[in-house]
Design a protein that fits this description.
CATH topology of the largest domain in chain A: Rossmann fold
Protein name (chains A, B): Transcriptional regulator, LacI family
Number of strands of chain A: 11
InterPro entries (chains A, B): HTH_LacI, LacI/GalR-like_sensor, Lambda_DNA-bd_dom_sf, Peripla_BP_I
Mean pLDDT of chain A: 92
Number of domains of chain A: 3
Keywords (chains A, B): DNA-binding, Transcription, Transcription regulation
Pfam family, one (chains A, B): LacI
Strand content of chain A: 15-25%
Largest sheet of chain A: 6 strands, mixed
Distance between the termini of chain A: 75 Å
Oligomer: homodimer
GO molecular function, one term (chains A, B): DNA-binding transcription factor activity
CATH class of the largest domain in chain A: Alpha Beta
Structural class of chain A: alpha/beta
Helix content of chain A: 40-55%
Largest interface: A-B, 53 and 52 residues
Order of helices and strands of chain A: HHHHEHEHEEEHEHEHEHEEHE
CATH superfamily of the largest domain in chain A: Response regulator
DNA sequence: TCGACCGGATTAAACGTTTAACCAGCGTGC
DNA sequence: GCACGCTGGTTAAACGTTTAATCCGGTCGA
C-alpha cells in the first residue's frame, strides 16, 4: 500500500491539493458535492494526514506530554491509562516522560517534552513539589500550582467520609496512618479524617511512617484502638498483615481501611475497605483544562472530584470490648 | 526567547543554512574551524532542531510507541519507566497507547501509533495473544511472536531456581498457584517449578485460579502442603493473608513465595520472598532490538534475562511435622 | 599553460500540509 | 450595461530540515 497524500487524492479528482485539504477540513469553499465525494474517497483508502507535515505547518503537534514523577505512586498505571483514553478522545497522542528522582529530574523531563513538541503537559508531580510554569500549558494533578490548572480528587472530603463511616460503625478510638508529611494528598486525607473524628469527639492518633518505620500496630490495638485508617491501601495492607500475624482478627477485633483501591486490595483476605478516587474523571478534567488552554481559551473552573467508599470485609462494627484478646 | 532555527544561526555567521546543518551533523564539507564555531554557538543558544521538520524530511519521527496491553500486569509502571529510560538514552521519545481489553483494542492501539508516525513499537502484549506483524519494526516482551523480536525474562529458569531453593529448605509437598493458563509467562514459571520439583521427586500440585476462584489454602496446608509458590506476588499475597487469617504462621507452618517483587511485597508482614526480573535489562534488550531494526540492521541475538531470587521472611525451613496445628 | 581535482561553501528541491491571496465565471441589482 | 458580490475553485508561499547537485577559486600535475 503506497503512501497516501493530499496530492494523491487531488490527482484522482483532477483538483488541487488545497481543495482536498479544504474538503476534508471543511474550511475553505468547496462544493458540497465534491466535498462529500472527496471525504468518501479519503475514508475508503484510509487517508491520514502526515503528522509531521501538519505539525510543521501549524506549529502544533497534536501530542501532549505526561509526566509521571512519582513512580512509587501506585496509581501510575491507572493515570496513564485514563490520560491516554482522554487524550485519544480529544485527538491527542501521549508522550510519556518518567522522571523518577528529584525535582531536577522532573523539570528535565518537562523540558524533554517541550523540546519534542508537546502542545501541553499533564503532570502527576512528585509529592511535595511545586511545578514551575513553563512555555506550554500545564495541567497538574493533585498538587498545588498556579491556580486554574490543578485537578484534584476530593481527598479531604474522602477522608471525612471514610471517618464518618467508621464512626457510624461505633469506633471511638482510631489510628490514622500516613507515610509522608510533605505529600499534599496525604495531608489532606489525614486532615479530613482527623477533622471529622474530632468533630464527633472520637479519639484519633496520627502516625507518620517516615517518623516510625515499623510501628507496633498490634500493640496499639491491644491498647484500645479499634480501627486503623491509612492514607493508602499499601499501608493499610501493612497494618492488616501485621495484625493478622499477631493473631488479631480483622475486622472482629480491629477494622482496617485505606485509600485508592489498589490492585491487591480486593485480593487479600479479608478484602480491604477503601476510599477510591475516580481516576478517569480526574484525567478527563485534566485533559479538558489542558485542551482549553491549548486552544487559548480559559480553563473551565474545576471542582474536586468526589471519592467513593468501597466497603469490603476489613471493616466492621467496633468490638464490644476493644482490644481484648 | 525567540525560536531558533538553522536560518537564525546561518545569518549570524553569514553562511547558508545548509552549511549550518552540515556543521552540526558533521556530514557535508565544512571547514573544521567554522564547524567548531557553529557547534559552539548552537550549544550556547540551546538550539534544538524542529522534530516535525526533521521528521517531514527524513520520514523518521524519532519516536517509538509503547503498547501496554495488559493493565492488570502490575509491572506496567516499571516497564514504562524502563522503556522510557532506554528510549531516552537512544534518543527516542515514547508514545504510549494503552489498550485495555481485547485483542482488537490491542491492534487498534498499534495502528494509532503507526498513524502517529512511530518508528517502531515495543509491545507488552495481553497475555495469550500473538502480535501480528505490521509495517513498522516491533519488539515484543514476554510473548511469542515472529522469531528475533521477542525479549523475555527467563521465567522457566526463575521458576526452577525458586523451586530449588524451597527444596533446599526441605520442602517436599508444595502447591503451585497460577492464575491463567493462557499466559505464556505463567505457564513457563509453573513449568519451570514443576519440572525442578519433579526431578527432585517432590510432590507438587498445581492450582489455576481461573478454575477455582477461591481455593481453601489453609485446608491444603493442613493436608500436608508446606509451601505455596505463586506465579505472581499478587497471588502469593492472597495465599499469605488467607493462611494468616486462618491462624497459620508463615513461614513457621508454611512458606509462601511469588514472582516479580511488586510494590507491596516488602511491605507486608512477613515480607514476601519473590523471584524478581530485571525489568531494565529486558527493556534495554527490547530497545536494542528495536533500534537495530529501525536502522535496518538485523536484530542482535537475544538471550533470556536471568531472574534473581529475593529471599525475605515468608519462606523458611519446612516444618518438622507438616500441617500440624 | 591548461585541465583536473579538491576543499568549502551555496542552491535548490523536496517532504506534506495549511492558508492567505487571488481569479474566473455567473447571476443580480440598479 | 456595468460594477458588484458570490461560488468554487487555484496558486503560491510557508513551516525547518536534509541532501544531492552545483559552483567557485585555488593548487597541483603534466
Amino acid at each position: 500500500m503506497r503512501e497516501m497524500t493530499l496530492q494523491t487524492i487531488a490527482e484522482e479528482f483532477g483538483v488541487s491539493s488545497a481543495t482536498v485539504s479544504n474538503a476534508l477540513s471543511g474550511k475553505g469553499r468547496v462544493s458540497a458535492d465534491l466535498a462529500r465525494r472527496i471525504r468518501a474517497r479519503a475514508a475508503e483508502i484510509g487517508y491520514a494526514p502526515s503528522p509531521p507535515a501538519r505539525a510543521l505547518r501549524t506549529g502544533r503537534t497534536g501530542v501532549i506530554g505526561l509526566v509521571l514523577a512519582d513512580l512509587s505512586n501506585p496509581l501510575f498505571p491507572r493515570y496513564a491509562r485514563a490520560v491516554d483514553a482522554a487524550a485519544e478522545a480529544a485527538g491527542y497522542g501521549v508522550l510519556i516522560a518518567d522522571s523518577h528522582g528529584d525535582v531536577g529530574a522532573q523539570t528535565a523531563a518537562l523540558q524533554r517534552l517541550v523540546r519534542r513538541g508537546a502542545d501541553g503537559i499533564v503532570v502527576v508531580p512528585r509529592r511535595g513539589t511545586r511545578v514551575l510554569e513553563l512555555e506550554v500549558p500545564l495541567a497538574v494533578i493533585d498538587a498545588p500550582s498556579t491556580p486554574g490548572n490543578t485537578i484534584c480528587a476530593d481527598h479531604r472530603g474522602g477522608g471525612a467520609a471514610l471517618a464518618a463511616r467508621l464512626l457510624a460503625l461505633g469506633h471511638r478510638s482510631l489510628v490514622l496512618v500516613g507515610a509522608n508529611r510533605d505529600s499534599n494528598v496525604q495531608r489532606e486525607r489525614i486532615g479530613g479524617m482527623a477533622a471529622a473524628l474530632a468533630a464527633a469527639g472520637a479519639q484519633a492518633r496520627t502516625i507518620w511512617l517516615e517518623d516510625a518505620p515499623a510501628p507496633d500496630f498490634p500493640a496499639l490495638a491491644r491498647e484500645g484502638a479499634t480501627a486503623f485508617l491509612a492514607t493508602s491501601d499499601l499501608h493499610a495492607l501493612t497494618v492488616l498483615t501485621a495484625l493478622q500475624r499477631a493473631g488479631l482478627a480483622v475486622p472482629a477485633q480491629a477494622s482496617v481501611a485505606g485509600f485508592d483501591d489498589l490492585a491487591f486490595s480486593a485480593a487479600v483476605s479479608p478484602a480491604l475497605t477503601t476510599m477510591a478516587q475516580d481516576v478517569d474523571a480526574v484525567a478527563r478534567g485534566a485533559l479538558a483544562a489542558l485542551s482549553a488552554r491549548i486552544a487559548g481559551r480559559a480553563a473551565p473552573p474545576e471542582a474536586a472530584v468526589a471519592m467513593t467508599l468501597i466497603e469490603r470485609e476489613s471493616t466492621g462494627p467496633a468490638p464490644a470490648t476493644p482490644g481484648n484478646l
